[in-house]
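User: Could you go from structure to sequence for me? I need the amino acid at each position, not a summary. Structure tokens:
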């Protein structure tokens, strides 16, 4: 065993900044025994991206949603005729055809519904909660008449963004971006105002303004000079640190390595905060048209993803039970009222329009390539969903589930899986496994499953 000459307890890493100014940083107290240092091998592939695209009020109703919905003889414009790979898109999926989106049909929440307080089976609430959290809503504090409720756990975007297997020890500057397009709201609180939650009673308000999103991502901090000095100080002592490391035994090396890892993380965050992306777009405009605004926000988001400012996002086109008025489609009333008025043809036109918006987001991701020459969409798993199957009767049968992207090759594109009455959380298991998160099971309170959707994972 090689004996290591003891170091003084007051050992410093020394270096010099430009102009010869001497700097020093203290090292932690070191012992002696060798553990294996944690390896930080460079991954030759780009990491996966996870996103949620959300639209309000489900789809046009048909017999699959229940006997009442089937009485009018309404055509199912959502479900493709064939299952398996290479399906022909249904009419409402035609806007997404260029992106070879996979679809699961027939799925429904399998969570238990408590008897008290009453009203927890309402599709507006139940479908939304299971689709985005895998769980029912929290019974405590629930009040159906006032539509007051909260989640029991984080929504999928926040679950992924904080999961140690997704970012590991090197998160992007923003663990997630929470974005929105339409400002129309059924209520201005909680579930009706946001689709992203970090936990119970902790809604994350979406960024609605392109200018606000642009400023958050690309504006240079006012203290850039001071941040730059601190980052250069860390650079200056690296050579001395490596020289010191060669003189140490193993536990000492581990502790020094941990200390340097900590300093590197500080420097990384300084650089992420003070640095700018090399493809910063021009300052954005804005628009009241949902498609144009989706284009604007999606362009900014694509730059953020390409520059690894984040790898997780939620994109709320329209809020739950939206009161957005689609007057550009000749629909006089807001969408929520339009659904309850039974205006099937208007709901069809609105749903088609919302799928066009989803396609605009995917267009931007497909057109943008990262430094490894991978498109953002090839790296992504984007979950498209709504709060229930249809909005006339609030049915949570036939919940919409779209999966766009290839998740770095882990997902097969263009597959239709049909499971009438199937567990909605099978979609969650599939997505989480696709992006590399070990998922023995997912779903809660009666909705647990270890099964994935067949044929979607490579």
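Assistant: Here is the amino acid at each position, in order:
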């Amino acid at each position: 065993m090689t004996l290591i000459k003891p170091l003084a307890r007051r050992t410093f890493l020394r270096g010099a900044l430009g102009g010869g100014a001497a700097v020093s940083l203290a090292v932690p107290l070191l012992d002696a025994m060798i553990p294996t240092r944690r390896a930080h091998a460079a991954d030759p592939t780009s990491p996966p991206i996870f996103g949620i695209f959300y639209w309000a009020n489900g789809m046009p109703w048909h017999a699959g949603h229940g006997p009442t919905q089937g009485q009018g003889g309404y055509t199912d414009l959502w479900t493709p005729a064939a299952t398996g790979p290479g399906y022909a898109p249904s009419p409402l999926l035609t806007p997404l055809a260029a992106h070879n989106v996979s679809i699961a049909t027939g799925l429904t929440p399998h969570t238990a519904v408590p008897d008290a307080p009453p009203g927890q089976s309402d599709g507006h609430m139940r479908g939304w909660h299971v689709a985005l959290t895998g769980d029912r809503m929290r019974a405590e504090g629930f009040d159906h008449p006032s539509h007051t409720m909260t989640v029991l756990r984080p929504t999928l975007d926040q679950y992924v963004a904080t999961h140690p297997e997704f970012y590991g020890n090197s998160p992007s500057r923003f663990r997630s971006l929470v974005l929105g397009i339409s400002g129309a709201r059924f209520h201005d609180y909680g579930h009706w105002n946001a689709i992203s939650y970090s936990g119970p009673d902790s809604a994350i308000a979406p960024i609605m303004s392109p200018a606000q999103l642009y400023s958050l991502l690309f504006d240079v901090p006012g203290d850039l000079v001071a941040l730059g000095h601190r980052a250069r100080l860390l650079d200056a002592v690296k050579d001395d640190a490596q020289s010191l490391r060669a003189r140490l035994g193993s536990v000492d090396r581990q502790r020094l390595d941990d200390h340097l890892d900590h300093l590197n993380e500080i420097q990384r965050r300084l650089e992420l905060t003070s640095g700018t992306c090399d493809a910063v777009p021009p300052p954005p405009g804005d628009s009241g048209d949902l498609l144009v605004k989706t284009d604007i926000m999606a362009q900014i988001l694509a730059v953020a993803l390409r520059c690894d400012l984040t790898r997780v996002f939620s994109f709320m086109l329209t809020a739950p039970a939206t009161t957005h008025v689609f007057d550009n489609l000749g629909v006089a009333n807001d969408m929520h009222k339009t659904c309850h008025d039974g205006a099937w043809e208007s709901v069809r036109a609105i749903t088609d329009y919302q799928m066009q918006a989803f396609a605009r987001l995917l267009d931007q991701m497909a057109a943008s390539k990262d430094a490894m020459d991978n498109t953002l969409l090839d790296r992504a798993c984007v979950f498209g969903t709504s709060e229930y199957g249809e909005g006339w009767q609030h049915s949570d049968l036939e919940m919409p589930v779209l999966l766009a992207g290839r998740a770095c090759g882990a997902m097969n594109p263009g597959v239709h899986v049909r499971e009438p009455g199937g567990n909605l959380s099978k979609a969650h298991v599939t997505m989480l496994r696709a992006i590399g998160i070990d998922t023995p099971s997912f779903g809660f309170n009666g909705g647990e499953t270890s099964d994935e959707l067949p044929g979607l994972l490579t």
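One structural detail worth keeping in mind: The chain is about 30% helix and 10% strand.
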